[in-house]
Task: inverse folding
């Protein structure tokens, strides 16, 4: 099996990445080692000098190490990145290896590059010129990578692993700059990254997909769909994303009430989204049946949209409202907007990230801006307000209404970087040297993976209950061919 | 594809939930928003005023926020609810979408309703009439939902999503009342919910199943079984339940030694159960082969049974004994009692919750009563005894033997609410308006889901990569027959 | 279905374990209960006397209970043991039940026996002769079991569950002795167990496999491979191992900076390994396609190799280098060394543990020895150095260079116990009484499990590649029969 396929693969486009892929992986990894050697060290909480630091700063217990505040959230985020995103994309019938495998590859590269890029902007120790990393850097690196994995969702099945690595290299770089502008220059808050991660990542991916538009993608449409068990694998991704999203939005929130509140808000928004997603999915199918695509994706929209405001005093019912709206909009997006985007705007969005990340991300940015602008000392308390929005130092005199304006500006920056960066990177990826598949080979693991002979491709209905002895010899032959 | 199915579906019973399901989801979700708006606020540890609270109460470090005591356990419990229960029920060959999907739906609704119901009983701030929620409320909401998911196990494959939502609405309500009586009025202890969650949930589900008895369920017996990969999916559920059960039983236990001890006891009871389950499964099959049903379910019985006493000084060997007994009883339950229940008592229990939750839950209640009654200052220490059983305030003078009596009474309350509530709710669900499937369509995702053409029934190699036209007609024919 | 299979099973070797398996499970579990009754109690942090202990030791907050330092890591390790190892081995097309199920069984037994064995060596309270257990003991028990699960990887598909239990009984015993020698007598450090767990476990398994060499294993070669979905199941195992490995290596590291640093080092080493694994996998396949075997296994090698030195000041770039090297070596191991081992050394290593655990484990031991020997006060700080290497008490005067020597000696001890113990245990397992399968029934769940009739369980070898038109009519008949 796959012999004919293989022949087809090779002809119109060369998907053989035997030299480009190893070359990129090895050279970049070596570059990482050199750069880490020059720049990266442990921060004071991860260094053996912590014992001295503790004494100097009157820290009485080891448990006050940031590790214990953030490590459980970190691990949850880690699961979202590798299992959540990876398995969410396994819904395609013959693209599971690439979904999980390339997700794994680009995340593993991305986190290293992100530690450097974000480190230069945020964790540089000016006394010795070194980046000092600790648990929060690891979380931020995972966050940074999330934006590239979101973008992967738009181009899923249509690009080569080399293209994905190039996309990640640029994506992480753009992310770090955008994040620095938003968090440090504009001093906007974005605990769960509705703007920084989701809006940027989604428009980045959609723009790339627009540049890489394939008019003849229909040639592989028989593979652009799910099978029964691939939908169940995808639910593993969905659920781990859904369950751990409270950790995602609270992972780098302020210690104490900040993390606590972010987790509650996210928990509630997500619960609400599930109900409205189910409602819309059933209402807009002609026989009231549910569509797995919606359940796998739109149920997560509330988590995206509550990201920016997760740390704010959004109130429990505020979170429910955000979730309610996003479930509706995201599901309708799958039903009406995605076909429109593909047909009219020439944006082929394999996973529908426009519905899961782009729209909810923008909503999240708006919710953040509004709730920041309307924040008051009455609700937050004097000190609470300063703590929540970090009105200290240069920003001591900023007031909530002004903060709201900066939050809105931040959303604009995220959009700008996403669209602009995406078009730029898309043009690079369009160069005919990256080993991308031909239109008729999209969504097929065969191009980049040794795919085992398998039960699901065997003509099972014919074969389940045959009289075995009759064909014993045939089997032998087949095995030889197959391996 | 699925056309004939559809015709069949529509005829004897109408499974079209296109209006009822969206209506219930939207209206209930709107009601949640209104009720949360009126009633629910953050508690002092999740509110921006925490900084003031800390100062007032001389709390020196953010890490003493309850969030850090309970959040890791909460996330584990969350995984149990959504992945654990969801995937455990995917063992059926064509009911995976409904198992995971409806589990997702009712849990997402249930946790919101539980926050309100439990909030009114336990977290109402009488100064302002608001429910103040924090991380412990989220855990308790997950716990509360667990009882309804247990009940789902009994009716799996035989009810519509609308029925499940109705069941959950009543189930959560009954749970909150029962829990209030048991924990507050009787002042019984039940850290892991052997009585409150498992006994109640299981008898609630079994009673519903009894009321909804289907004499002709045999018509869909060809779908009431597993296939190879569905059994592996179910093992994902089993293992996440098994692994995180120590977190379940310790999640709301007392800070410090309480949580520590509950985790140890549960870890040990579960380990012991695995061995006796394997032993019984092998011993009672005629060729010594193991049965996946037992491994998927009975291995968990020890966690259920050690729930009430998890926080007590049960001793490591005590936990092993509990696990030992439950592995034996639960496995024998699958072999002998389930068929008996179905044949004689007309209780069709799809997942065998009688063996996994009902019997072990009752055993757990008894173990709890006995170990409470026999608790002594010698073993617990004077202060330890008071702390463990909360002999403070109104209950300052209660002694262990009396506590044992109240624990036994609590078990009775759980049974009563389970059976009584189940019969009541079962009668409601019997009304012919909820869109439940006909007997011949039970255990089939087709009724409520758009099911993809799929590898296991479709001859993919022929359709994907072969010369398709040759067999196009054949395929067609096969599909019609097959569905 | 499976009747013919069954007949074959019974003839050459008797795989009926109906008496031996239940007997071993029940008797050993009873023994555990008795031994736990005699020996095991809660330690002071899990006992109700904790409240007194706190007062006596001026502990001000419950959060300083070791539970809160280690429980999140414990749960991650627990997931690695049961889901990680279990699902990693499901890659075989028809051995998923055994992979997950027997992994579950031997781990559940192993942790109990490990609590006793390690308890006698490490946690014995000499005042009352009791083993006092707490959360750290649970982690160590999981660690101990990991070595036996690694060994299971070598013999996967070729042994009976009874053999596995016997292997585990001896494996745990040997482990506990080896660990005592390495950690206590040699005073070597091995936070992530590169030597203690991986080197020992791998050579233990390889030696057993060598003793149990089956010259005619080719008879079941048609089952010694994967199918599409079994490879995806295996990726669940891979990813949970990969993601939680930082928890594994940091779980029992020193509170504070020790755990923090171990997590960072592991995170980085693993990221690096992914890139070099992909590079090698692509480079050495003739068309540049990736091989799932490498992605599933070699990506984890960096976690193994950074185990010993995880707690040391290895530096971020040091971790990357370790990961880089291991990805290369491990992948090349799968391509070149495994076939050599099988052909020349008669070691049949089903999962390739030589590439994933043995070689990286040895590298880890060497890295540990070198980095210990080169540790300096300049880098570690005076107190930091003492803390990291525990130069207190009897070892107050030990210096880094000497420590390096002892680390190297420890590696030798691990190798010795692995090879020697493996040969010894292999000889025991060779006795013709354990119910192992015949050569033609290896890698087949049928021997020990009731396998559901199903599309995938159909006589695959016969049916995968039939000429469909020939049997079109048969299908008709078959469906009727089958359902």
Result:
């Amino acid at each position: 099996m796959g012999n004919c396929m293989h022949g087809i693969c090779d002809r119109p486009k060369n998907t053989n990445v035997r030299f480009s892929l190893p070359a990129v992986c090895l050279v970049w990894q070596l570059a990482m080692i050199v750069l880490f050697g020059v720049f990266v060290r442990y921060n004071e909480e991860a260094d053996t000098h912590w014992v001295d630091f503790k004494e100097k700063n009157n820290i009485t217990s080891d448990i006050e190490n940031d590790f214990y505040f953030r490590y459980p959230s970190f691990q949850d985020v880690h699961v979202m990145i590798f299992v959540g995103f990876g398995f969410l994309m396994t819904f395609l019938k013959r693209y599971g290896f690439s979904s999980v495998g390339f997700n794994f590859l680009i995340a593993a590269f991305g986190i290293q590059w992100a530690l450097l890029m974000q480190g230069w902007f945020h964790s540089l120790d000016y006394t010795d010129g070194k980046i000092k990393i600790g648990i929060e850097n690891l979380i931020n690196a995972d966050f940074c990578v999330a934006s590239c994995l979101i973008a992967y969702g738009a181009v899923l099945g249509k690009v080569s692993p080399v293209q994905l690595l190039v996309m990640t290299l640029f994506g992480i770089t753009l992310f770090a700059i955008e994040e620095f502008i938003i968090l440090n220059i504009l001093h906007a808050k974005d605990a769960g990254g509705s703007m920084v991660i989701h809006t940027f990542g989604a428009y980045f991916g959609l723009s790339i997909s627009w540049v890489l538009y394939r008019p003849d993608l229909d040639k592989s449409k028989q593979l652009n769909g799910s099978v029964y068990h691939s939908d169940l694998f995808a639910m593993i991704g969905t659920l781990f994303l859904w369950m751990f999203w409270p950790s995602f939005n609270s992972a780098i929130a302020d210690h104490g009430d900040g993390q606590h509140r972010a987790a509650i808000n996210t928990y509630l928004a997500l619960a609400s989204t599930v109900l409205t997603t189910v409602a819309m999915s059933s209402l807009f199918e002609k026989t009231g049946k549910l569509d797995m695509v919606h359940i796998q994706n739109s149920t997560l929209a509330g988590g995206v949209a509550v990201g920016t405001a997760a740390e704010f005093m959004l109130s429990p019912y505020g979170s429910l409202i955000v979730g309610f709206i996003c479930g509706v909009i995201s599901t309708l997006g799958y039903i009406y907007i995605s076909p429109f985007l593909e047909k009219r705007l020439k944006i082929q969005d394999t996973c529908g990230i426009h519905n899961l990340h782009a729209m909810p991300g923008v909503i999240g940015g708006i919710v953040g801006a509004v709730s920041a602008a309307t924040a008051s000392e009455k609700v937050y308390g004097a000190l609470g307000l300063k703590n929540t929005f970090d009105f200290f130092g240069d920003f001591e005199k900023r007031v909530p209404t002004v903060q709201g304006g900066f939050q809105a500006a931040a959303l604009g920056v995220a959009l700008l970087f996403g669209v602009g960066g995406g078009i730029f990177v898309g043009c690079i990826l369009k160069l005919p040297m990256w080993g991308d598949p031909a239109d008729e080979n999209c969504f097929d693991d065969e191009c980049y993976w040794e795919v085992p002979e398998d039960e699901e491709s065997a003509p099972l209905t014919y074969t389940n209950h045959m009289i075995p002895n009759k064909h014993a010899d045939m089997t032998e032959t087949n095995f030889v061919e197959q391996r």
In short: The beta strands of chain B are 40-42, 124-125, 130-133.
